[in-house]
Amino acid sequence: MGERQGPLESLVTMDQLFGGVYQGKTVLVTGHTGFKGAWLALWLQSLGARVVGYALPPMTEPSLFRLANLQEGITHVEGDIRDGDKVRDVLKQYQPQIVFHLAAQSLVRYSYNQPVETYTTNVLGTVNVLEAIRMTPSVRACINVTSDKCYENREWPYAYRENDAMGGFDPYSSSKGCAELITAAYRNSFFLNGDTHPVRLASARAGNVIGGGDWAQDRLIPDSIRALTGGQAVTVRNPHAIRPWQYVLEPLSGYLWLGACLWSKPSGFDEAWNFGPHCTSNLPVFQVVNQVVAIWGNGAWEQASGARHSEPHEARTLSLDITKAKLRLGWEPAFSVEEAIAETVNWYRVQYGNPKLDVKTFSSESITRYVQAAMKKDAVWTATQENIS
Fold it and tell me: Within 13 Å of residue 248, how many CA atoms lie on the same side as its CB?
């Protein structure tokens, strides 16, 4: 198929995107007050879904959830996924049809300080969500979002495939490997019998996600923005570590495509999927920081001083093989790493430069801009759209 031109409206309206699957559906998003969860809730709103969010209050100040006033227009429920009774009550009350499970303790360095919290949230919390789904007949599709760090990372140069071994050096990574094993066990034990509970359950693994609205600690872009806005040099712990950088809407588009296929197709999608960037986006940290500083317009970075042996272990190399998603799901990234970094840094520049900015409208425009770019540059988006519709 050739490249298509013109505005989004000439391709497909937003509520028709992803085959129109989400229009009018009740969709539960756990972790909707977090960085990725807030973007997903905002996107689902634009797709015409009735969004129910279940999460703790935002963990950072500021947060995209509060700046974009996302509690308006969705059903916002505050709660902990470690509270199994409350999770079940929420699903029973709102009867969602599709579930995106994003709630998690998502920071590697924090997991060294709080391993029990990390395991109970990421492991027991996943069990609680899947148990609640098992007791809720309305649910027909669920995606458990884990991490690229779920793999047993041996620092090999090749990209990891979905059938590679689960593992994890640190508590966060191993907890995500556990969450993958739990997902497979629930799928095989409870959700493959379509006569009693035809839930199509998949898991999704993404790389190092960047984008506007992230203020978490110990993450490269938020740490860089805090330093630059404060007139300080960006401190980098491990400048030569290689990461698979990707714009936040890239994996979210993959989750949405996967959810649409789980809903529309009888079988073949209820398994694990990688949603990483192209291999050209696997860059060392220092190259990313160089681009961030250049786009920001002033500033500098420096390597952290002090003994490295006192630092927690961090993987130096980790990348994902996305061949399966590309060939079977019809998904691949739309942005280059340079576009991803530019879109991210410019979001913060505009947000910090305009205190009266309507962040919800501004972020919704970012989604529209991304969809336009994806549908113009990537024929598989359009082909998959036509197959699902």
Answer: 25
Q: In what order do the strands lie in the sheet with 200-206?
A: 75-78, 50-55, 26-30, 98-101, 141-145, 200-206, 272-275
Residue 291 has pLDDT above 50, yes or no: yes
Nearest to 346 by CA among 379, 325, 369: 369
Task: Annotate 355-372 with DSSP letters as a single string.
Answer: TT--HHHHHHHHHHHHHH
The answer to whether the beta carbons of residues 316 and 242 sit under 8 Å apart is: yes
Copy the structure tokens of residue 227: 């330093």
Residue 315: its pLDDT value, please? Answer: 59
Read off the tokens for 55. 């999460």
pLDDT tens readout for residues 198-240:
899 999 999 789 999 999 988 999 999 999 999 999 999 889 8
Paired tokens of 23: 């229009």
What's the confidence (pLDDT) of residue 330?
86
β 242-247/282-284 pair status: antiparallel
Q: What is the mean pLDDT of residues 159-181?
A: 94
Distance CA(208)–CA(185), nearest Å, equals 27
The Cα–Cα gap between 85 and 341 comes to 41
More confident residue, 383 or 39: 39
What's the pTM? 0.93
Burial category of 189 from C-beta neighbours within 10 Å (exposed 0-12, middle 13-18, buried 19 and up): exposed
DSSP secondary structure, 233-263, as one string? PEEES-TT-EEEEEETHHHHHHHHHHHHHHH
Residue 27 host element (H or E): strand 26-30
What number of other Cβ atoms are within 10 A of residue 73's Cβ?
14
Please say whether the beta carbons of 329 and 261 come within 8 A: yes
DSSP 8-state class, residue 56: P
How far is CA 141 from each of CA 101, 179, 227, 265, rounded to the nearest angstrom? 11, 17, 41, 11
